[in-house]
């Protein structure tokens, strides 16, 4: 497919024993099957993400923002992306601190780009985490996708790296259809004129 979109899938949890890489691997396979994306998986567990940020905001500091050298690969991936999928668990009715730190170290990298969510957890399936993330990323002028994926009670709902719900691939296809549409529309808009942030 021509004009493929660069998709970055972010594994948001860095917790020991996390399930995120299993979910992200399946999501990456679904994205590849869809065919509209070149996929890169970014695992925050392998990135240097300090919780202490500089006094200046990346919103105003631009390219001169003093990020740690160990964050260069993350910044480059976010900057080059046309779209994102955030894979997140739910910890205490919200999302991991590692994910918040990764988001807060950046600003324009999210601007005018679409973000979809794949969450997992207990009974709520990570939906509390996603609701909080939607607020945060909207503040950064990203566009959040309506149809995400949620996996309640993931510890019994997956087997051999795949969800047991036979309808999950269909839900993933809908997510990627919406994400591809927004990725194309927003990339065209960014190319036509700078976003007025």
Describe the fold and architecture:
The protein is of the alpha/beta class. It has one domain: Rossmann fold. Helix content is 40%, strand content 19%. The strands form 2 sheets. Strands 1, 2, 3, 4, 5 and 6 form a 6-stranded parallel sheet that branches. It has a two-stranded antiparallel ribbon with strand order 7-8. The longest helix has 25 residues. The model has no long low-confidence stretch (mean pLDDT 95).
Short description:
Helices cover 40% and strands 19% of the residues. With 197 residues, it is α/β, with parallel strands linked by helices.
Question: What is the secondary structure topology, with strand pairs?
Answer:
Blueprint: E1 5-11, H1 20-34, E2 37-43, H2 58-61, H3 72-80, E3 83-89, H4 97-104, E4 114-120, H5 127-139, E5 143-144, E6 149-151, H6 154-157, E7 158-159, E8 162-163, H7 168-192
Parallel strand pairs: 1-2, 1-3, 3-4, 4-5, 4-6
Antiparallel strand pairs: 7-8
Helix pairs in contact: 1-7
């Amino acid at each position: 497919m021509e004009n493929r979109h660069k998709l970055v899938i972010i594994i948001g949890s860095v917790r020991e024993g996390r399930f995120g890489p299993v979910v992200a691997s399946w999501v990456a396979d679904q994205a590849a099957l869809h065919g509209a994306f070149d996929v890169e998986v970014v695992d925050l567990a392998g990135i240097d993400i300090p919780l202490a940020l500089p006094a200046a905001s990346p919103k105003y500091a631009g390219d001169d923002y003093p990020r740690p050298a160990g964050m260069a690969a993350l910044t480059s991936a976010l900057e080059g992306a046309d779209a994102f999928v955030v894979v997140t668990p739910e910890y205490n009715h919200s999302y991991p601190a590692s994910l918040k730190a990764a988001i807060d170290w950046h600003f324009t990298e999210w601007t005018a780009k679409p973000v979809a969510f794949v969450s997992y957890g207990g009974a709520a399936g990570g939906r509390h985490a996603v609701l909080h993330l939607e607020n945060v990323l909207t503040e950064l002028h990203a566009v959040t996708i309506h149809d995400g994926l949620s996996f309640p009670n993931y510890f019994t709902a997956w087997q051999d790296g795949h969800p047991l719900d036979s309808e999950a691939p269909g839900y993933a296809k809908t997510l990627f259809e919406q994400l591809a549409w927004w990725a194309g529309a927003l990339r065209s808009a960014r190319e036509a004129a700078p976003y007025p942030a």
